[in-house]
Structure formats: C-alpha cells, structure tokens
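Example 3.2
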Amino acid sequence: MNDNYFGSLFRRRIVFVIIIGFFAICSVQLFNMQILQQPTYSEKSDENSVKPIYQLAPRGIFYDRNHKVLVGNKPSFTLRITPSTYDKKLTPYLEAILGMSPGYIDRILKLNESYSKFIPRKIAKDVSFKVIAWYEENSSKLPGVDYVMETQRDYSFGVTGAHMFGYTKEIPLEVFQRRKGEYDIGDEIGFGGIEKTYEDYLRGEKGIKYMLVDAKQKTIGRYKAGEEDQATIKGDDLTLTIDKDAQEVAEEEFKDKRGAVVALDPSTGEVLAFLSAPQYNLEDFAKVTSNEVWRELNNNPDRPMFNRASMSTFAPGSTFKMISAIAGLEEGIIDTNFKVNCGGGYQFGDRYFKCLHVHGTVDVETSIEKSCNTFYYTLVNKLGLDTWSKYAKKFGFGTKTKIDIPEESSGIVPSTEYYNRVYGKNGWTKGFVISLGIGQGELNVTPLQLAQYAALFANYGKSARPHFLKSYMDTQTNKRYDVKPQYYDIGISRKSFDIVRRAMYLVVNGAGTATNIKLPDIAIAGKTGTAQNPHGKDHAIFVGFAPYDNPKIAIAVIVENAGFGSTVAAPIARDIIKAYLQKDKKEEPKDLAALPVVKEANIEH
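Structure, written as tokens:
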C-alpha cells in the first residue's frame, strides 16, 4: 500500500518538475527572442519585405583629344529571369512579347545553369517601353520575371572604331571565378580594345536601392525613404589621343575596302587614327548578342572581328628599303657617293632578280625616290643577313609595340637563327636574303609597326610607345590625370636620318613614286610600297609623315588586294593628314582646359 502510494507520488513530482522546466525554458526563449534578439529578428523580417535592387554604374565616356564624344551611354531597360521562382510555362508568352525565336530563353537559362538559381539572368537588353508597360500591368502573374534600369553604350557619335574601342558583355563564368568579390553574375565587363585594357577605370561602382515589396513581390514604396540607399559611382571618363576628324576620314575611305590605317604623333606616340577594315557594328554588342549575329561575323570570309591594324602581318614591300639604307649608312658600307648601275635587275648566282624599271646610275637618295630594287638587292647582299636584321629590330620590327590594347602581333624579322630553325642549316642559301632588301620574303610586319617606323623617321629615331590614353578624369576627385609617354631613342645618327628623310621628301615632292599626293601647303614625306600577295592581287602600302620640317603626324596605310601603293594607299594617307593638320588647333577646349590637372599619371596596361 505504502509502496504504491510512494510510487504514485514520485511519478507525480517528476511530471510536475518536467512541466515547470518546460515552461521555464519556453519563457526564457521567448524573452530572448522578443526582447534580447528583437533587433536581429526585426532585421530578418525586414529582409522578407525589403528588396535590394542593384544599379550598375554608368561606364566612363570616351572623348577624343579635342574633347569630342566618341563613345557615350544611354538609358536602357533589361528584362531578367530568376530561375528559383520562374514558371517555365511563361516562356512562350515572353518570347512572343520580346519577338524572340522559340527556345531562346531556354538556351539562355541552360548556358547559365551553373550559377545559383537565385541569381537573375539577363534575357533581353534595351527592351522597349511598350514591353516594360506590359510587364507592369502583368507583374503579379509573372513570378521570377523583373527588369532593371541600366545604361548601355551609345555609339551614335559618328565614329565606329570597333577594333580600338572593343565592347562590353556579360562576364563569363571563368572570368567571374577569377574576380570573385569584384563582380556579380550578370555584370558587364570590357572585352577587347580600350574597354578591356581600362576596365578598372571605366566600370565605376554599383549602387543599391532598397524597395518595399508585398507578399507577391510587388513594389509598394522606398525602404526608409531611401536613407540606406547607396548611390552609384560613375566610371572614369577617358580622353583618348584619337583625333575624331582624322578617324572619320579614315573610316569613310575604307567603307568598301579591306586593310588598315594607323596614324601617330611622332613625338609622343599618341594614336591619332586607328582603323581595321572591314569593321563590325558595336551596336550588336550593346544588347544581348544573338547567335545569328555571331554566326554571321564568324563565317564572314573578310573576318571583320580580326584586328588588322595591330594583328595582321604583311610583307612591307618597298617601304622597307629605308631600313637597308640606314643600315648601310650607319655601318659605313655606303655613303652619298655610293652608286649602283640599274640595268633592270640583279644577277645572283643562277637567279635574276628583276627591277621595275631600268634606272641607270642610282645613289642612295635616288634609290628611295625612284624605288630602285636593284640598288637594294646589291646593298642587302653587302650588309649580310644579321646586320640587316639588327637594324630592322632597332626600328621595332619583330617585337610588339606594347600598345595599350590587348590584340597585337610581333611579326617576323628573319635572321640566321630563324632560317636555321625553320629550314635547317643546310636548307637555305644567301639567295633568301636578296628578297629581304625590298621588303619581301619571310619578313612580316604589322600596320602598327609601320606607323611606328614612320614616326621614327619623322622624329630622328626618338619617339614614345604608341598609346590611346591621353588622360582620365577621376570622377570622385574631379581631377584630370595626364598620361606620361614612355619615350625611347633607337640610337641612329642624325646624319643618316637626314639623307633618308630627304629622299622620302623627294618621293612626294620631287620626281618620285608619290608625286600625285603633293600638297601646296603641307610638305609630306613618305614611301610607297606594293607587297606581293601569293593569294591574289598585291597589297598597296604607304608610310609617311608631315609636315616635313616639323612633323605632327606619321602614318601607315595598307589596302589589301588593291595594287600599287602610289595610286591607292598614298591618296588615303594624304586625306587623313589633311584632316588632321588643316584645322584650327590653337586653343584647347575650355571645358577640358579648365579642369584641374595632376601631371604624369603612371598607367600600367
């Protein structure tokens, strides 16, 4: 009896203690959650009703050297899909509204499926206001679909400049993984050209706008009246070295041609004009680039995406004769009294190398003016391969100029080591060297290198690394930073340069091969070339500078499969030179000159 009673009472007490303990724990936890942890849980509650909207910063604007806009920005609506909440049954309706082909949205989602399903995917840029109005009316029926207001590049300022400007596109996965923390999925990043090189200057800093939304994610107002919003910081504006007038003339001249133009300021290395033709339409890259556009560009036999100005390599033809002349003069192998008799060609062993004409007795000056091949067959044989190669490399051939865009080739300057590697020690003869004297054979150069070459003749062997950036505007400090040119001197005597420069003057202003471009008020010096092309009609080339006594522009023009340099390439160079020099440049634009300047900014690229 007593045991049963004890057992029953003991059990009741245990149950009582458990109940009391349970209520005590609940009370403590409720106190902790409602009093001590209230700010934290309130913040989490806010997160459920506050939607952060990230706003991309406008990219920096490109100006030319006279502060004319080259590339700007314009407002744009971008439609997005967030896969975690998106109903795929909506796809046919969205594609119909957007005018997309069936399957387009599925392809976009498939390409980006490795990213988190909670990250929005951009499916259409530059969406019309009509589409946005339709979305606003139907947003409650479109889960996982939204839009953001962005800016996109504006190319409506009269210059195409595709290969120098580059373009922007959504950051690829491999780049995103390398630069985590700097970019979010869906952000734009520079591809090619100046957009890529100066990406960190141009991109700015994103802003955040916090919006209150209801259970259906419909916007109902600003969170805390915008007090916690973060404003965007616009990217730095770049003042480029490009002269818009000269660039426009170059682009007009090459509308129906293939080839390249590079013009430099010979004393600073500033790029005044830069063209690769044919070009591609940068507007196609300002939006989501369709597969059709990519296919058309990649399948085009003219290769419009390829940067001919800095990546294509050509035999320079007769424009390279000045290298042999300088080498002969510097090495003491020839002087102004050295003469060669041109009877229409040059016999070397059992092979006869032809000249275009019978020039008779020719000295170094006349050999350039009249473009006598026989003189240079003779001279390069006297020089020898490696001496000739040494001087070609002094002028920057066979190596990259390190211009501030990523696309560049180094070209080829043959040497004994090169021929031994390619043909074997017994696989080539001295006859290989003869053609090099007139810029043919295995020699390959880029239009950019030829422009640098012309600049060195203009400025007596002293110049600076070619570059596009003249200055940039720091948008946070409102200060302008000028870029310091990287100068160099190739170490050739002024006496040798005087002889060859005089001959280049006579090419245009004497009885030379380019007298058709002589101008009454601008003294142009230059050299024509016609480069042999085993795949079709020869390429037309011209290199030169002006004005002769105080050079302000050096230029190289190559027109593919066009014939003679004198009749095709030289007139284009003349017109670009005129566009640059024949205008009033006495006064720097006031809006640029008035800005505070910090001199000689160091730019790494």
